[in-house]
User: Which sequence fits this backbone?
């Protein structure tokens, strides 16, 4: 057991990644101390976590949320509000888990790295939208970024056998695996009748609603291609997607000599979360361990570009560069929210994103102000299309 005790800030504590992180922390009270939390609408849950872990600083999204939470927790708890509050909390612990949903997680990513902390990144949207800005703050002395996303965590582990020169010249390609989601093998005709319940019924992972819908359109994998490129500094031309329905091989790295390294486990997000928290120590809980004597089937197939155009949109956004990935992610957030609110059909999600991307005009993305303006423009275009 390691002797170093780490303080942890868990932002987005009430969600799917948040609750699985709490499960890891509960098992390692000697190793980790939870010092800061944040959440969105689920105030009762946020209060329960605050009280259970005796957390002293909590972030909420508005003044009214602050007042409501204050009634549920000890008066000594400091409650901070909004983006500034999130930024403050993200600079306040040794390890910062960014489990916030969507572009709202941006202040956490930037602030943790700027403060020289270890960032355990689940919130892929912030890295995808802000890749050039993240690259700058990532160079802060002491700062490090580890991937909670299972595919990127797998690649991180496989890359340990590489000398790690910039751009990884000994790596031929990264192979991101995709479960294929609930609609793998569906025809276009079948997809036109896809319901919300169908789309939320993921075959291998239990996750928050937004990423579950992204998995059904394969936009999640498209976003992960962009995430891999930004995370490892490898052009998307060297990132490929392979469908692997069992979700046992979490991703692979092919080296120039033809060797392929893979990371395998049963699907359990506590494994990548614990990897990021404990690094370089692996926590001894056997999450996702495989019994190879029992019925382990591993199959692979190519993704279907006709039924799942989201993947091509993501590659195109990367080639366009600048603010295009931010537009893609913002338009997708708006379209998925509209689908979850029963305003559009499943097929219309990626239609809306494609129509927004048709309107993208090259913008280099030099500053945070540029990014925030581009995010707002892409959202406004998406809302405009939804209102038509
Ligand atoms: P979730 O919806 O279950 O939880 C999101 C958390 O963020 C909640 O605590 C919510 O209260 C908070 N939140 C939502 N909107 C907010 C806002 N505007 N401001 C501040 N806080 C807000 O989502 P999740 O499935 O846990 O996913 C979180 C992130 O992790 C996403 O970026 C997702 O892509 C990524 N991720 C999730 C999984 C998974 O297994 N769930 C796997 C890989 C990556
Ligand atoms: Mg993933």
Assistant:
């Amino acid at each position: 057991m390691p002797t170093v005790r780490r303080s942890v800030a868990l932002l987005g504590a009430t969600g799917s990644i948040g609750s699985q992180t709490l499960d890891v922390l509960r098992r390692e009270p000697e190793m980790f101390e939870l010092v800061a939390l944040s959440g969105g609408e689920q105030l009762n849950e946020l209060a329960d976590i605050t009280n259970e872990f005796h957390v002293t600083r909590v972030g909420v999204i508005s003044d009214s949320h602050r007042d409501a939470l204050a009634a549920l927790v000890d008066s000594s708890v400091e409650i901070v509000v909004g983006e500034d509050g999130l930024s403050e909390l993200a600079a306040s612990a040794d390890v910062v888990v960014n489990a916030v949903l969507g572009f709202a997680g941006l202040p956490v990513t930037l602030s943790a790295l700027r403060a020289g902390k270890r960032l355990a990144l689940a919130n892929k949207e912030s890295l995808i939208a802000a890749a050039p800005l993240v690259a700058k703050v990532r160079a802060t002395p002491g700062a490090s970024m580890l991937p909670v996303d299972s595919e990127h965590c797998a690649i991180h582990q496989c890359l340990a056998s590489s000398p790690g020169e910039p751009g990884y010249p000994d790596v031929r390609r990264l192979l991101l695996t995709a479960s294929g989601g609930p609609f793998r093998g569906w025809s276009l005709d079948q997809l036109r009748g896809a319901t919300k319940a169908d789309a939320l019924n993921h075959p291998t992972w239990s996750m928050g609603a937004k990423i579950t819908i992204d998995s059904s359109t394969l936009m999640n994998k498209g976003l992960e291609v962009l995430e891999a490129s930004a995370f490892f500094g490898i052009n998307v031309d060297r990132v490929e997607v392979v469908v692997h329905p069992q979700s046992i091989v979490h991703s692979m790295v092919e080296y120039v000599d033809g060797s392929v390294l893979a990371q395998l486990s049963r699907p359990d997000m506590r494994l990548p979360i614990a990897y990021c928290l404990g690094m370089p120590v692996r926590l001894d809980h056997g999450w996702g361990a495989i019994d190879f004597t029992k019925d382990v089937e591993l199959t692979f197939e190519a993704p279907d570009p006709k039924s799942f155009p989201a993947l091509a949109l993501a590659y195109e956004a990367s080639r366009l560069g600048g603010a295009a990935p931010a537009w893609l992610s913002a338009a997708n957030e708006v379209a998925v929210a509209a689908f979850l609110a029963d305003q559009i059909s499943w097929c219309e999600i990626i239609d809306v994103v494609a129509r927004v991307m048709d309107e993208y005009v090259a913008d280099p993305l030099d500053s945070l102000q540029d990014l925030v303006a581009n995010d707002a423009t892409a959202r406004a275009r998406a809302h405009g299309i939804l209102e038509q």
Remarks:
- The mean pLDDT is 96.
- Residues 12-18, 39-42, 61, 99-101, 104, 122-125, 149, 205, 207-208, 210-211, 269 surround nicotinamide-adenine-dinucleotide (ligand 1) (CB under 6 Å).
- Residues 85 and 112 are 13 Å apart (CA to CA).
